[in-house]
Write a structure and sequence with these properties.
It is a single chain. With 481 residues, the protein is of the alpha/beta class. It contains 19 helices and 15 strands. Strands 2-1-3-4-5-7-6 form a 7-stranded mixed beta sheet, with helices on both faces. It is globular, with a radius of gyration of 22 Å.
Amino acid sequence: MDVVLLSDVYAEGWIRGAGAYKLATELRSVGYTVQVIDFASRLTYDETIKLFDKFLTQQTKVLGVSNTFMSNNGSKIFEQDWMLNLIQEYKNRFKFKVAIGGNRGGPATYTKLARDTFDILVSGFADKAILAIVEGTAKGKQIEGQLIIDSNIDYEYTDFHKSKTIFTEQDCIFPGEALPIEIARGCKFRCSYCFYPGNGKGDTYKHLKDKSILRDELIYNFEKFGTQVYDIMDDLLNDSPEKCEYLHDVFTNLPFKVKFGSYARSDLLISHLHTLPLLEESGAVGLQFGIETLYKKSGSAIGKGMAKEKTIEGLHYIKENSNISLGSGFIFGLPFEPIESIRSTIEWLDSVDCPLDNKEVYALSIPSLNSHFEHSKLMIDPYRWGYKDLDPNNKDRMIWDNGHINWYQAQDLKNECLERFRYHNHFNAHQISRVYNMGYDIDTVVETPAAVFRQEYQSIKPQSQSVLNKKEQYLEKLYAI
């Protein structure tokens, strides 16, 4: 193979990460041979050797690592402690370059964990950069032997509106498998805590796929693989009423029914309630919001200023007027929010009056500037919002105190909520398709609390037997190529 790409979504259930397959599409379109190896963080040593011996040769130009969803452990890239050493062995043997990209890490992470292994570090969307990398013409900054490429500057990708992700037999897709899909890139908002690479784009309607392109992609996946369930990977599904109308026009005019989960903003949905039936009729079975806080001053500070009463009233309306599973994240430790307000939110989330099916809580993370390629406003200047650093020697993240609550207290509150919500918390919008891919009926997944589902069916945690069975089925197909 000219190029081998390692990918995984190391999370509950399983679905493919969109990034590696989009890069494979770009490379295949100009004649390169490409093999994506999925489940990369769950391969055994013997399985990895078998795959590397099959696909890595003197012909191989690049081994790429798609790291956004590879591991949930920030101190390592792969779950397997031996993987980087094994990659290095094959690199020494066949003299290919090793590149890594994604949204989980940055220079400090990659150079600390694998300076010798990674030749190229890529930030941003690498659709165009990957071609230059494989051709050996990529440009960027050379820092201590590593080439750092900023795709947003040197390789901006401007053809998304007419692009597809084309899965092939080489990708070993299962019949009826739920797949990831991108409909638009970027988010027109720039929330203070967010460091996603596509935020702050303004009018994202111009970053939307052409209707005919999206329709062709959906029909191809249905005719080729029987796919009718999707995880929509857009940073924001409902950034405008026009986009909701666009979705409705495409999805309701297909010769089959589609179901999907996606990120959305509750305040935009509440402000444009006529878009609710558009999204449901389009196939939305799960929407994941990022409400983050119900405290007005904090919400205004981060870019989400809808009043608490209007938010709660709007969520009740959405729940009562649709069959969509609703979820949201909440962040403890945002600027200006007193602990009494956080406590009030927790009690509401834990009450029968809360219309959210899924509640996710986090302690505010302020990573160091070197830990990620992209930076949030809070990462750049946390002191502007009154944060103090309790542990200046920590090079990975700020251990903060904002005058109302500190990082340790926020972590304790998060852990308390995980226990309190456990038996009435449902899967979030993105987990729905992942659990569906384990062979479960999507309506059952949506309707059943996650803990009850796990007890009555099987554990579907990352290393559970059901996921490992799926991996075995995938490897059987992969070995046969």
